[in-house]
Every structure is written in C-alpha cells, then in structure tokens.
Amino acid sequence: MGQNKSKSKKELIIIAAAVLAKNSIKKLYATTDGQLFVDKNRAELHKRNLGDKVSVVKITRDDVETAKKEEVKQPSSEFLKLGVSRQKDAVKKIETKVEIDDLITEEEDTQKRSSTIKLLQTQLQVITTSNTQNTGGDE
Q: Looking at the structure, do residues 14 and 67 belong to the same domain, yes or no?
C-alpha cells in the first residue's frame, strides 16, 4: 500500500494552503495520512476505516496565515543562523555600527535570543569605544 508515515500539522497546513487558496471554503479537515476533506464527518469516516493509524486535524485559513508569518520570521543573516557558540568568534568580524544595529533588530524580530543580543551589544560598545579613541586623538 502507500506510505504509513504520519504527517505533522505543519505539513498538513502546507497541503491545505493550496486548496484553501483556490476555493472559498473557510476550513478543511485533514487526516494525518495527508487526505483533505471539507466535511468533518467524511474525515472521521476515513479515519475510522484506517483505525488508529491516523487522526483528524482541523485547518483554517488563520492556521495557514499563521504558518506563513512564522515561515517569514526566520533570520536572513548568515550570522544569526549560527549557534551562539559560533557567533562569539564571528561577531569580532563585524566592524560597523549599522550592521550591528541591523542584526540586533533582526534578532529581536525573529529568534529573540538574549545571549545573541547581548553579544551584539557588547560588540557595538567595542566599535563605539574604538571609534571614539580613533577620532579623539586626531583633533
């Protein structure tokens, strides 16, 4: 027969998104084997035929919109994709205040890791101090 792998709600939302986009229906019922139904009863009957192998998940347009927003909130910067331990070495290569400010903003909008934000703020202080010392001696 087919695959026995059960699909996650996120996978089902991706499948349902295409159907919801092309139709005026507000919700679908998906079974974890990947089948979509407009009627909850039909989904339950399908589930009953397969036994304990599947479950029924309700998917609404709001679920699809929420999934799209979460998908967008992944960091785009290579630096922010690094784990914190690798960021400690990489942060030393960032030399401009603008780049640091952009990274802090992006981190606050996506993953919100306080350790990464603190690391960037510390590097910002290093850059600011370095710039102040360099410009202060030239006058």
A: yes
Whether 59 and 25 share a structural domain: yes
Q: Rounded distance, CA 54 to CA 86, Å?
A: 41
Q: Is the pTM of this model over 0.90?
A: no
pLDDT in tens, 105-131: 988 888 889 999 999 999 999 998 887
83 and 102 together in one domain: yes
62 and 84 co-located in one domain: no
Q: How far apart are CA 59 and CA 17, in angstroms?
A: 9
When divided into structural domains, the chain yields a total of 2
What digits encode the pLDDT tens for the residues 11-33? 999 999 999 999 999 999 999 99
